Amino acid sequence: MTTLEFSYSLNKLSSSLKPFALKLTRDMDDANDLMQDTMVKAFTNKDKFTEGTNLKAWLYTIMKNTFITNYQRMVRRGTFVDTTDNLHYINSGDVLVENGAYGDFTMDDIHEAIEGLDEVYKTPFMMHYRGFKYHEIAEKLDIPIGTVKNRIHIARKILKDDLHVYRHKN
């Protein structure tokens, strides 16, 4: 397979990888980064691809392994080794909370944001939060399942916008 053919095949399959990247990362920006990393790795390692095998499966494997490697790297970055005699592994964060006040403020803001939702969005969102499945919510509220999914999506988007001050910045 020539470089041009390989590049064309990668480009053609990239759209089918996007949902998988989003499922792994749960964030659009991180999903785009994962997509880019996957494509770069695939292109730089094209000589390792055996022609006649499933390119899509090969790309999914690269993406999954890249995600796992990045996740493990992130976890290791937040862990240090205690060199005392007991040799404990301790997870350390950048933030040390002395009391629960910050958490209380956060929860108050979350509850306030949820209470601020229109009832049409809040009810299905809270039902889903409490563990109801989409079809159960649709039955109880007597609305189509697509409407349930849409309302929960809109509620999440509104809450994300309302609670933007808590967005994690790296």
UniProtKB/TrEMBL annotation:
GO biological-process terms attached to the record: DNA-templated transcription initiation
All copies of domain RNA polymerase sigma factor 70 region 4 type, residue ranges: 109-158
Keyword Secreted: no
One Pfam family recorded for the sequence: Sigma70_r4_2
Keyword Aminoacyl-tRNA synthetase: no
RNA polymerase sigma-70 region domain residues: 17-73
InterPro entries given in the database record: RNA_pol_sigma-70-like, RNA_pol_sigma-70_dom, RNA_pol_sigma70_r2, RNA_pol_sigma70_r4_t2, RNA_pol_sigma_r2, RNA_pol_sigma_r3/r4-like, WH-like_DNA-bd_sf
Transmembrane segments: none
Signal peptide: none
Gene Ontology terms for molecular function: DNA binding; sigma factor activity
Keywords linked to the UniProt accession: Sigma factor, Transcription, Transcription regulation
Entry's family note: Belongs to the sigma-70 factor family. ECF subfamily.
Protein name: RNA polymerase sigma factor, sigma-70 family
Organismal lineage: Bacteria, Pseudomonadati, Bacteroidota, Cytophagia, Cytophagales
